[in-house]
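Hi! If you just cloned this repository, the fastest way to understand the data is to look at a raw example. We've pasted two of them here, unedited. The first protein comes first, obviously.
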Amino acid sequence: MEFLVTLYMCYKELDKRFAVVGSGKVTKHARIEATVLNSLTPVSKAEIGKNLPDVSATTIEAVLGKMVKDGQIRKIGTGRSTRYIRC
């Protein structure tokens, strides 16, 4: 039974992630937000950049800064080891 619950939760998470991709024109800002908020583990700017190669590092930094300021995500670490995770 526990396996089925875990499997269901995985499919639910997958469906949520694909909803962002399949919902027509999505802004870069929304794609960055979705990447961070849907991540199960803390992500770095470099990882976001790899997942979204058409988005500039400056845009990623601006969106992450705004999200931290708004309390949507939390910043972990400093410098190159900085990671971001939802609150």
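Ok, and the second one:
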Amino acid sequence: MQKALFYIVAGENEKERAVLGLNVAKRSHEFKRFADVKVIIHGSSQKLLLDEDKSVKEVVDYLIGNRVIDSACAFVAKKLSIEEKVVSRGVELKPSGERLSALVNDGYIPITF
């Protein structure tokens, strides 16, 4: 059984795509479709971590609560001025390129949304 890395990189106008990726990651974790599931959130998709829409918040809360989200990009969070809010939600900020390479080198297969 493989390990999956959901790399959420959808742009500003692609909220639906990013939410789809988060939902697939959640369901993959819930139903144990992979040996392990991790999520890295990069780019403006990080705003979803702070989204108050009930359906988005439920997915994000599940992923955070179950430690599925590995990290969000530190550089982008700083650029968007949301570092403190993201960290207060329980998500670590790390360089996403470094995390991506570390997880791929650890056997995770990247799936992008």
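That's it. A detail worth noticing about the second one: Residues 49 and 60 are 6 Å apart (CA to CA).
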